[in-house]
Design goal:
By secondary structure, the chain is mainly α. The chain contains 23 helices and no strands. The chain has helices spanning 5-12, 15-28, 33-45, 49-59, 64-80, 84-94, 102-114, 118-131, 136-148, 152-165, 170-182, 186-199, 204-217, 220-233, 238-250, 254-266, 272-284, 290-303, 309-321, 325-341, 346-358, 362-373, 381-394. It holds the Pfam family TPR_19. Keywords: Repeat, TPR repeat.
Length: 395
C-alpha cells in the first residue's frame, strides 16, 4: 500500500501542506485511519490533547501498522503531558514492533537522554538513524547525546548531516555553534551562526548566540550590532532587552542600561541578567550604591535558581566591600548557595574558604582549600596561587 502524500509531507516538516491534505482526505472519507492518525499528530503539535485523543479513538481497530502509529501518537501525548515514565515504557514496547520503527527508537532515545542515561540514549538514537538515515532530527538528537558522551568527532558529523538534510533547522546551528565556542573555535562558531542567519534572517536565538560569540572574540562593535538587531526584532522581549542592557553597560552607557533594566522591572519582566546588570552598575558607578547592588543580586538569585553567578557575586561583594559580622555571615550564606548550585566551579569554593577563615571556621576553610587544590592542573594558576596562600595562613 502506497504512503499517503500527507504522511510524507508531515515527515518532511511541511506541516501546513500536510494539514491541508490530511483534512481533505478526512472530508472525503471520515473513516480514513491514516488521515485520522495524521490529524492526531498535528493536534499534538498544536498542543490540543483532547482533539488528538478524539482522532485516535476514531482510528482504533485498524491494521497492525495503524495500531503502532496510534501508539506512537499516544506516547508523544504522554511526553507532552510530562508523563515521562509511561511514555518511555510505551516507546520501549513500540521498539519491538515489526518492521521496526525509527520514531519509536527516537522517542525512547530522547527520553533516556532527558533522564541522563546518555549511553542507552545513544544506542536507541543510533538505531533510529540506521532505520531512517534521512531523518534530520534523529541526527540532531544523536549529536547532542554524543557531545554529552564526549564523542565530539561523531557528534559534529551528525550535526553536519542534520543540516544537510534540513538546512533550516535552527537548533542544529545553535548546538553546532555552542560546541565550537566551548572548544575555543570562535571563528568557526561565528561562521556557522552567520550561515544560519542566511537561511533564517534575524532569527532571535541565532542573533543572541552571535552577539555572545563576537563578544568572546573581542569584536565588541559586532557584538553590539547583533544585540541591537535582536532588540529591534524583539522590542518587547525580556531576553533581548536584557542582552542589550548588558552591552550598554559594557559601553559604560549606564543611564541607557539602567533605563532598559527598569523598563523590564516596571513591566514585571525583570530577568536574572537584567538585575545582574543593575547590580554591576550600582557597584561600579560613582558613588557606588552597595545596598542597591545587594538587593539587585538577591533578586537575580531568585529569578534564576540555577545560575551560580549572582550568588557568588553577592557573596564577593559582601566579603570585600562591606563590613560587620552579620555581613560576613550573609556572605557565607550566599557563597554556600553558589557552591550548592555549581559544585564544579572553583570561584565560589575559594570565596567560601576565604569568608570561612574570616569567621574563624578554620576547619571548613582548610577543607575547602584542600579540595580546591586537589583539582590539580585544571585549576587556573591565579586561583591556585590564592588557594596556596590561604592554606599557608591556615596552617
Amino acid at each position: 500500500m502506497s504512503t499517503p502524500r500527507f504522511e510524507a509531507l508531515l515527515k518532511s516538516g511541511d506541516v501546513q501542506q500536510a494539514r491541508e491534505e490530511a483534512e481533505g482526505a478526512f472530508r472525503r472519507n471520515p473513516a480514513d485511519r491514516r488521515a485520522l492518525i495524521a490529524l492526531a499528530k498535528l493536534a499534538v503539535l498544536d498542543g490540543e490533547a483532547a482533539k488528538a485523543e478524539s482522532y485516535l479513538q476514531k482510528a482504533a481497530g485498524g491494521s497492525a501498522e495503524d495500531e503502532v502509529d496510534v501508539g506512537l501518537v499516544r506516547a508523544s501525548l504522554l511526553m507532552q503531558r510530562g508523563e515521562a515514565g509511561p511514555a518511555q515504557a510505551l516507546y520501549s514496547k513500540l521498539t519491538q514492533s515489526q518492521p521496526p520503527r525509527a520514531e519509536a527508537f527516537y522517542g525512547l532515545g530522547f527520553l533516556l537522554a532527558e533522564a541522563g542515561d546518555n549511553t542507552a540514549a545513544c544506542a536507541a538514537l543510533e538505531r533510529a538513524v540506521q532505520l531512517e538515515p534521512g531523518g534530520a532530527v534523529y541526527h540532531f538528537q544523536l549529536a547532542r547525546v554524543l557531545f554529552a558522551l564526549a564523542r565530539l568527532k561523531e557528534a559534529f558529523q551528525h550535526l553536519e548531516q542534520s543540516l544537510r538534510l534540513n538546512p533550516g533547522h535552527v537548533p542544529s546551528y545553535l548546538v553546532f555553534a555552542i560546541a565550537l565556542q566551548a572548544g575555543g573555535e570562535l571563528e568557526a562558531a561565528e561562521d556557522i551562526l552567520r550561515q544560519g542567519l542566511k537561511v533564517a534572517p534575524d532569527e532571535p536565538h541565532l542573533l543572541k548566540a552571535l552577539s555572545n560569540v563576537l563578544a568572546g572574540k573581542g569584536d565588541f562593535p559586532g557584538a553590539v550590532e547583533a544585540a541591537e538587531t535582536l532588540a529591534r526584532v524583539q522590542p518587547d522581549h525580556p531576553s533581548a532587552l536584557s542582552n542589550l542592557a548588558r552591552f550598554r553597560m559594557a559601553q559604560r552607557n549606564f543611564p541607557e542600561a539602567l533605563a532598559l533594566c527598569r523598563k523590564l522591572s516596571e513591566r514585571g519582566q525583570a530577568t536574572s541578567l537584567s538585575r545582574s546588570v543593575e547590580a554591576m552598575i550600582y557597584e561600579t558607578q560613582e558613588p557606588p550604591d552597595l545596598k542597591a547592588a545587594v538587593a539587585a543580586w538577591r533578586s537575580a538569585m531568585k529569578l534564576d535558581p540555577q545560575d551560580w553567578g549572582p550568588a557568588n557575586n553577592l557573596g564577593l561583594l559582601l566579603l570585600t566591600r562591606m563590613e560587620g559580622p552579620e555581613v560576613q555571615k550573609q556572605a557565607q550564606e550566599a557563597l554556600e548557595e553558589a557552591l550548592r548550585r555549581a559544585p564544579e566551579q572553583p570561584e565560589p569554593q575559594l570565596n567560601l574558604a576565604l569568608v570561612s577563615a574570616q569567621l574563624g571556621d578554620k576547619a571548613r576553610a582548610k577543607e575547602l582549600t584542600q579540595a580546591l587544590l586537589s583539582r590539580g592542573v585544571s585549576l587556573a594558576p591565579e586561583l591556585k596561587e590564592q588557594a596556596e596562600r590561604l592554606l599557608k595562613q591556615l596552617d
